[in-house]
């Protein structure tokens, strides 16, 4: 079972999300939070596998809550966003969010997104990831912000995988592109994240964009 904590300040939206998630046989909603502070507190208490986190919430915003949840190693975080406030999205990415989900995603997409993050892939939807990366990389202040020397720790194959992540490719897509098993791709992703001291593959994708690889 995938244990999920739902953090959303609008009660009607939260109820809808909970209803959808509970329809999946492999997902258990273990708690609900109406603001960021409550989300962090419940994550500490319940230790869910994943927190479905709204960005805009009272008391403590979703970005700050994500930073605390991920920083304390309490759970993976899947961020809910409308893409109308880019800085919030980018802030969540820097805070270590494992994935991003558009609020207009249908029920099937929501359930699959939760399963995807729970598998450790962190890519909710390649199209969403590519859009996020493109918008992030287009900001002049961020271009070239990373030190190319960080790549020295990577093997040639790991650099190739990192480049694919920069295009927003899923593990399956990378496997096809580089002609290797999907399980091998997952291993390379885990290793390069550890070497680069990154919390998610989305962070790795942005790093690849910043370095132009």
UniProtKB/TrEMBL annotation:
The keyword 4Fe-4S does not apply. Keywords: DNA-binding, Phosphoprotein, Transcription, Transcription regulation. Residues 3-118 form the Response regulatory domain. Residues 147-212 form the HTH luxR-type domain. The keyword Nucleus does not apply. It holds the Pfam family GerE. Signal peptide: none annotated. This is Response regulator transcription factor.
């Amino acid at each position: 079972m995938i244990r999920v904590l739902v953090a959303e300040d609008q009660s009607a939206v939260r109820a809808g999300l909970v209803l959808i998630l509970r329809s999946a046989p492999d997902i258990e909603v273990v708690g609900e939070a109406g603001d960021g502070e409550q989300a962090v507190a419940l994550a500490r208490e319940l230790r869910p596998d994943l927190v479905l986190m709204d960005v805009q919430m009272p008391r403590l915003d979703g970005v700050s809550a994500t930073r605390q949840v991920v920083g304390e190693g309490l759970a993976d975080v899947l961020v809910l966003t409308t893409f109308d406030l880019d800085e919030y999205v980018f802030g969540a990415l820097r805070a270590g969010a494992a994935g991003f989900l558009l609020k207009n995603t249908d029920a099937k997409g929501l359930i699959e997104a939760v399963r995807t993050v729970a598998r450790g892939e962190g890519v909710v939807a390649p199209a969403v990831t590519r859009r996020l990366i493109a918008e992030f990389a287009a900001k002049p202040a961020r271009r070239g912000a990373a030190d190319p020397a960080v790549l020295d720790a990577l093997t040639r194959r790991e650099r190739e995988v990192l480049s694919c992540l920069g295009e927003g490719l899923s593990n399956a897509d990378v496997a096809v592109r580089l002609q290797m098993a999907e399980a091998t791709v997952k291993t390379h992703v885990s290793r390069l994240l550890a070497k680069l001291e990154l919390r998610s593959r989305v962070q790795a994708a942005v790093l690849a964009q910043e370095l132009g690889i």
